[in-house]
């Protein structure tokens, strides 16, 4: 590692969190703009180890401020291929977090980075961050012969870079859309998020891109080729145990093995029973709304509250960490375009609420007859108004409301909710004071839970 870098660099800093009180400057994040992109380029176009900063460096920023932030990594090498871009791009996250006093969250155009006060006092600059990243990438991947990094902190240039990067993301995502799970005999898995979500095993199939949205099936395949002992691995599909739910014996076996036996069964396309585990860097969350027997989706960029009265961040804190949470699932936005999108639960016919910006983004995927029947925050901000909206618009879920009541009268418990037979339900609890901070998880195994209603309320500060 370059001796001029004024802070330590190493794996031990990976879990370091820089709280607001210790923040020198925020780069990108929810109150600014930003993106990170990695591209493969011809060898002759790359100036090896060059770090360029377009705009002010951190050392010229004011304490407590925020800045637009773009990270453009270009790599070259004889064995480099375009399919590796997404996989290498995802490594910006963990390598950045090796740098003491520099924090990196999320991926693509939702990144959020932070420089701590101590690191700023020692003189940490973006030049140093770039140099450390180049050293880390080149020592981990032999295939990278040359690498250069450009950081953007000027608003106009960052905006332009974000537009360009989004075009690349769209092209990458579109590539996997033509392929079906039935066309392949192998899926891929990723363990990168186990550093903070120990039970989390991402399963990546043609119709289920990774939860962070960064790694498609093609990129998983390319990663295994160049780094067969790395965090991304091959999964033999095995027997298809349930077509609708997306249950495969190979996925179950591999997940069980790689989660140390904690997760035994995974349904790739359902929120109920055994949903996919949720790490923490998912782009969006799918959540079941018992009151209307429908499914809502909220994405990371949405600053408002869901019909439950809680924002994305609160929900993410409760369902993340690598657990299976019945009725909740972290997912990529691209999964909304999947032909198998929550197909066991009714797919789009069960979708009742999502933020307007997200609805606009995926509008072309929504069936024409449903477009006006799915609410956004402009139509409903809590459960009563959501119920009214769905009734007025004649959403398909409304047909089930009557059936539920009849079944309840007949003394039966309808499938899914409000009564659920839950093989395992982990319930993260906040608000209970614990010495040293943090929270607790209560895990019910093989429990039957009957509830007339589930009410989630926001705790006023
Ligand atoms: S979300 Fe999944 S694919 Fe993405 S880095 Fe984490 S484990 Fe890997």
- CATH topology name of one domain, in short, is Bifunctional carbon monoxide dehydrogenase/acetyl-coa synthase(codh/acs), Chain M, domain 3
- β-strand amount: 15-25%
Using only CA atoms, what is the Rg? 23 Å
| CATH class category of one domain | Alpha Beta
CATH architecture of one domain: 2-Layer Sandwich
- Termini separation (Å)? 45 Å
Secondary-structure-based class equals alpha+beta
How many strands appear in the DSSP assignment?
19
Mean pLDDT: 88
| Helix content class | 10-25%
Number of helices: 10
Contiguous low-pLDDT stretches (5 residues minimum) are 412-440
**Main sheet: strands, sense, barrel:** 4 strands, mixed
**Bulk shape:** globular
Bound molecules: iron/sulfur cluster
**Strand order, largest beta sheet:** 4-1-7-6
Order of helices and strands: EEEEEHEEHHEHEEHEEEHEEHEEHHHEE
CATH homologous superfamily heading of one domain: Bifunctional carbon monoxide dehydrogenase/acetyl-coa synthase(codh/acs), Chain M, domain 3
Report on this model:
The protein has 461 residues and is α+β, with helices and mostly antiparallel strands. Among the domains are: 11-176, Bifunctional carbon monoxide dehydrogenase/acetyl-coa synthase(codh/acs), Chain M, domain 3 (2-Layer Sandwich); 177-276, Carbon monoxide dehydrogenase alpha subunit. Chain D, domain 4 (Ribonuclease HI, Chain A, 3-Layer(aba) Sandwich). It has helices at residues 85-96, 117-121, 126-140, 155-177, 217-226, 249-258, 312-319, 356-361, 383-393, 398-409, and strands at 23-28, 34-40, 51-54, 65-67, 69-76, 102-105, 112-116, 146-152, 186-190, 202-204, 232-236, 240-242, 247-248, 284-289, 294-299, 328-331, 351-353, 420-429, 440-449. It has a four-stranded mixed β-sheet with strand order 4-1-7-6. Residues 412-440 have low confidence and may be disordered. The structure holds iron/sulfur cluster (SF4). Residues 90, 190, 192-193, 200, 202, 210-212, 214-215, 279, 281 line the site of iron/sulfur cluster (SF4). Iron/sulfur cluster is lined by residues 90, 190, 192-193, 200, 202, 210-212, 214-215, 279, 281.
